[in-house]
Amino acid sequence: MITRILLIAAGTMLTLGAAHAADVDASAAEALAKKSGCLKCHAVDKKKDGPSFKETAAKYKGKSDAVDKVTKHVTTNPKIKVDGVEETHDALKSKDAKEIRNVVDWILSR
Length: 110
Ligand code: HEC
Hints:
Elements: H1 2-22, H2 26-35, H3 53-60, H4 66-73, E1 79-82, E2 85-88, H5 97-108
Bound molecules: heme C.
Heme C (HEC) is lined by residues 33, 36-38, 40-42, 49-51, 56, 59, 69-70, 73-74, 80, 82, 87, 89-92, 103, 107.
């Protein structure tokens, strides 16, 4: 009996886990982007100093290395040009891989 309950519980958790992986927590993503100062230069559908997240999502649509490239861009402080002046691109203010992935998935699904 106990084994059976455990099996059902494990099964339910697997199902929830799988459903969850595909979901983006948009409010958490937006909150971290805001806290990290990203929204000073980016908006979802408006170009500011940086491309809109819609533009970035379109650029990477169908590319298998999209998550890798964007993750690198927002965690390794690459050099970028803002109005012709070289600057260091900001990184997300989080070391939590799940939180970072959530923001990357959020950007790529705009
Ligand atoms: C000072 C302004 C500025 C801030 C702050 C900033 N960005 Fe950017 N971002 C840019 C510019 C400019 C580009 C375009 C760089 C290029 O194409 O070389 C860019 C590019 C990007 C791209 C596209 C990368 C690609 O490979 O096409 C993403 C995604 C991005 N930024 C996310 C973020 C996130 C997330 C944050 C917060 C951690 C952030 N940005 C903070 C200016 C900024």
